[in-house]
Amino acid sequence: MIRSMTAFARGSQNADGIELVWELRSVNHRYLEVQPRLPEDFRQLDASVREAVARRLGRGKVECGLRFRAAGANVEALQINQPLLDQVLGTLAQIRTQQPELQEPDIMQVLSWPGVTVAKAADLSPVQEQAMALLEKTLDDLLATREREGARLAALIQSRCELLQEQVDRARQRMPVVIESVRERLRSRLAEVCDSLDEQRLEQEMALLAQRLDVDEEMDRLATHLREVKDVLQRDEPVGRRLDFLMQELNREANTLGSKSADSETTAISVEMKVLIEQMREQVQNIE
Question: β-strand 32-37 against 60-70: which pairing, if any?
Answer without folding.
Answer: parallel
